[in-house]
Amino acid sequence: ARATMTAASSGYIVVFEHGTYAGTSRTISQSYSYLGEIGFNDKISSFKSYGATGRFWEHAPPGGLIYFFY
Q: What are the tens digits of pLDDT across the range 1-42?
């Protein structure tokens, strides 16, 4: 399954491989149609938003769970 993310606004988010903001991380400031492009398809366990708004899809839209961030 292809996880996706859309981001709107001038902020950014940091995604983490493990819960409690641990493990490998990536800073994201743009939308991705496939999170595998940054090596994070099916790997995000936690994330922090810094002024960004948007959503993640567990699978390609409209599949799976949707996670919103503000």
A: 677 777 665 789 999 999 999 999 999 988 888 888 888 888
| Cα 52 to Cα 57: distance, rounded to the nearest angstrom | 16
Residue 5 exposure: Cα atoms within 13 Å on the Cβ side? 25
Burial 24-40 (b: 16+ CB within 10 A, else e): ebbebeeebeebeeeeb
Hey, CA dihedral for 54, 57, 62, 66, is it positive or negative?
negative
- CA angle (39 as vertex; 5, 11 as ends), nearest 5: 40
Q: Measured between alpha carbons, how far is residue 44 from residues 13, 47 in Å?
A: 12, 7
pTM for this entry: 0.80
